[in-house]
Amino acid sequence: LWDDTLAYVRERVPRQVFETWFAPIRLEALEDSGAKIVVPNKFFGDWLGEHYGDLLGDAIARVRGGPKVDVSFTIEKPRLEESEQSGEVVGTVPKGTVAPRGRKHAHLNPKYTFGTFVVGGSNQFAHAACMAVAEQPARAYNPLFIYGGVGLGKTHLLNAIGNHVAERTDLRIAYVTTEQFTNEVINSIRYDKMIDLRRRYRNVDMLLIDDIQFLAGKERTQEEFFHTFNALYEAHKQIVVTSDRFPKEMPDIEERLRSRFEWGLIADLQAPDVETRIAILRKKSEDEGVTLPEEVVQFLANNMKSNIRELEGSLVRLGAYSSLTAQPITLEMAKTVLRDVIGDKKKIIALDDIQEAVSARFHVKIADLKSRRRSKTLVQPRQIAMYLCRELTDASFPEIGRHFGGKDHTTIMHACKQVAKALEADATLRATLETLKEHITRG
Ligand code: ADP
Ligand code: MG
């Protein structure tokens, strides 16, 4: 039953959502009163309940047959054996003797701490996972795999873990980019120093490795990393990896290595929502001593959506410009100084893209979407397509009507209302639409 339930869910949520939120859970008990599901921690349960509780209840009900099921979450009890062992490892590191060495070799960026990281909806899960690992190395999640697009805070969080641990413990920490690691492997081969390299990496308590996607295609380095990984993992040492891709999306990395990345927890960083962008701008401008008028904050937050590094870069540029010209920052100045970065980069979604995506998702022809045929299998996909056109573009009702074979604007309005109503009642439909939207907006 559980496998079927998961299969049902898998078809209805984006793959990454499934891997992150559904792969780690299991069904503990199913009674008439409800289903009990085991999750790794409280935060996980809260999030899952809020976002996908309905869908889960729905899925179980459909697979089992019968009325909708209430879902509750319980937290996974730590496996005793494991925590005892890792406790021992952490405990036996003699205090005061290893710290200087650990720090010297850590190469951590002191600016990237949890204190300077702004938490919002788009990154709170990754942040919580990193905090858990920093508080309890090798006991919370191992390995921890952080993934997310460029400039969303992977490197920052990885350093934050290192800094947190370095401040509070004497654990030996190695922070390394995959590029550095690759160079070290190459040099070790060239100068016959492989044993040194192995000793160096296998003696740490915590390995933080950044941008692991760069291992793609580098067989020898992968091999070396694989053995390092195994040695550390078996010794209950913490490993944290970042990547701009999901393990399964790295085809040039050996399967045995990819599957290891999935042993622990995979946490993703999403593009920040507008509140988070504003919070980041306020915090950074304060930290940098730049006075940013509210309208400039709004302007930046509304125009730089996908990348926190760019957001930060704009702030720095504005600050520099303002101090060089000895003028206060204004909206006018922001528009001039940043015109090259802000230009019209927004992806324009065409009505055709939407029709295409809907046609593929529901296996109906585009011509049928535009037709007047009223067969059952056509009506809902057609209405969904119309609804998405309204939602994802600036097109007016009459424009959309023209694009659907010359329909009246009232038909489109009616369709939008119907879909909105259906969405309220149907969690599965909501999930389907989310996936579709993601598909369309990503192109
Ligand atoms: P990535 O490694 O994912 O490409 P970085 O960690 O280098 O991204 O982040 C890019 C820049 O944005 C860094 O300067 C980082 O400090 C900043 N940044 C990212 N996320 C946040 C956040 N949530 N709060 C504050 N600064 C952030
Ligand atoms: Mg990075």
Automatic annotation (TrEMBL):
InterPro entries: AAA+_ATPase, Chromosome_initiator_DnaA, Chromosome_initiator_DnaA-like, Chromosome_initiator_DnaA_CS, DnaA_C, DnaA_dom, DnaA_N_dom, DnaA_N_sf. ATP binds at residues 151, 153-155. It is found in: Cytoplasm. SUPFAM superfamilies: P-loop containing nucleoside triphosphate hydrolases, TrpR-like. It comes from the Bacteria. Pfam families: Bac_DnaA, Bac_DnaA_C, DnaA_N. GO terms for molecular function: ATP binding; DNA replication origin binding; lipid binding. Transmembrane segments: none annotated. The keyword ATP-binding applies. GO terms for cellular component: cytoplasm; plasma membrane. Residues 323-443 are annotated as: Domain IV, binds dsDNA. Residues 350-419 form the Chromosomal replication initiator DnaA C-terminal domain. Keywords: ATP-binding, Cytoplasm, DNA replication, DNA-binding, Lipid-binding, Nucleotide-binding. Gene3D superfamilies: 1.10.1750.10, 1.10.8.60, 3.30.300.180, P-loop containing nucleotide triphosphate hydrolases. GO terms for biological process: DNA replication initiation; regulation of DNA replication. Residues 1-84 are annotated as: Domain I, interacts with DnaA modulators. SMART domains: AAA, Bac_DnaA_C. Residues 140-267 form the AAA+ ATPase domain. Domain I is involved in oligomerization and binding regulators, domain II is flexibile and of varying length in different bacteria, domain III forms the AAA+ region, while domain IV binds dsDNA. Plays an essential role in the initiation and regulation of chromosomal replication. ATP-DnaA binds to the origin of replication (oriC) to initiate formation of the DNA replication initiation complex once per cell cycle. Binds the DnaA box (a 9 base pair repeat at the origin) and separates the double-stranded (ds)DNA. Forms a right-handed helical filament on oriC DNA; dsDNA binds to the exterior of the filament while single-stranded (ss)DNA is stabiized in the filament's interior. Oligomerizes as a right-handed, spiral filament on DNA at oriC. PANTHER family: CHROMOSOMAL REPLICATION INITIATOR PROTEIN DNAA (PTHR30050:SF2). Belongs to the DnaA family. This is Chromosomal replication initiator protein DnaA. The gene is dnaA.
